[in-house]
Write a structure and sequence with these properties.
This protein is an alpha+beta fold and about 290 residues long. It contains eleven helices and five strands. The chain has helices at about 30-45, 55-65, 90-105, 105-115, 125-130, 135-140, 175-195, 205-210, 210-235, 240-250, 255-265; strands at about 70-75, 85-90, 120, 145-155, 155-165. The chain has a five-stranded antiparallel sheet with strand order 2-1-5-4-3, with helices on both faces. Helix 3 (about 90-105) packs antiparallel against helix 6, helix 3 packs across helix 10 and helix 9 (about 210-235) packs across helix 11.
Length: about 290
């Protein structure tokens, strides 16, 4: 995978070098060098992978090596609140990403809405725990004490998030936050530059390289289709249908994708709540039915 070349300074990122006295021989600041270091590390991680399907996970693992965090994941937003995990460095990172999607809450959603980094250095107590009470409680149960969500995208349009987690309470230092923003930029470039083939004109090798993104899109399609079926079953709008699926997944300890597959297989059917209220509440769903 080709990683981005050095990029110019951006207004939302600190413009100080990692080390005050670290200057290139020609007097240039350390920021371009820092960006290049990040890009080279991510590119090296992908070159070591022989299976194209493992490229995203390799990128996430490289993010962890570049930063003082316990794990990382990248999620792609598909609109209408539908979101899928693109990659994760470990099982906890994957579960944390699904937890945010299932609950419809957490730093990831706030970062998408605001189009700006959302830093939660202490999910165990205080402001962060109160801001996302359900997510914070479940995250701490996974051994996660801090989460940092950085939106991915260009021109202010967020297409997903890079989520970093720590198993201890504490924020990112200024140099580490700068590095995290550079990693965010490189991941955005990789995500936006790699698109699945649609017209069949690309070479087979290119189709293989893009297969992991195509797989993510397939998951999006399953959820979209299931939302449509639940809309008909409950006579509700898409947001309410997705809320009901999220609630069912949360209560049963499953992911929204798993619930969607059951709906599509007609093993699960949702029915209106008693009294005919279609408010997207979390009760009254019927269990698995053939």
């Amino acid at each position: 995978m080709t990683m981005p070349p050095d990029q110019p300074d951006q207004p939302d990122q600190p413009d100080q070098p990692d080390q005050p006295d670290e200057r290139a021989g020609d007097g240039a600041s350390a920021e371009p060098r820092g960006r290049l270091r990040v890009s080279e590390a991510l590119a090296a991680a992908t070159r070591e992978v022989t299976d194209p399907l493992r490229v995203p996970d390799a990128l996430c693992a490289a993010c962890v090596r570049l930063l003082p965090v316990s794990g990382a994941s990248v999620s792609i937003s598909g609109g209408r609140g539908i979101q899928m995990t693109w990659c994760a460095s470990d099982r906890v990172a994957a579960r944390l990403a699904e937890l945010q999607y299932t609950t419809g809450d957490g730093p990831c959603h706030s970062a998408l809405e605001q189009g700006a980094p959302v830093l939660a250095p202490d999910l165990t107590a205080g402001r962060d725990a109160r801001r996302w009470p359900i997510f914070a409680h479940e995250a701490v149960g996974l051994g996660v004490s801090a989460v940092f969500s950085l939106p991915l995208g260009v021109s202010g349009a967020a297409v997903g998030t890079l989520d970093l987690y720590c198993d201890r309470v504490g924020g990112l230092s200024e140099p580490d936050l700068r590095t995290a923003l550079w990693v965010r930029d490189a991941i955005t470039y990789a995500l936006m530059s790699t698109q699945p083939a649609h017209d069949g004109s690309e070479e087979a090798t290119e189709e293989e390289v893009a297969s992991w993104l195509a797989a993510s899109e397939a998951d999006h399609t399953e959820v979209y289709q299931a939302v449509g079926m639940v809309m008909v079953q409950l006579d509700v709008d898409p947001e309410q249908a997705l809320d009901r699926m999220r609630a069912r997944a949360f209560v049963e300890g499953r992911t929204v994708s798993q619930v969607a597959r059951q709906v599509l297989a007609r093993k699960l059917r949702f029915e209106p709540e008693p009294g005919g209220h279609h408010d997207g509440g979390h009760h009254g769903d019927v269990g698995d039915r053939s």
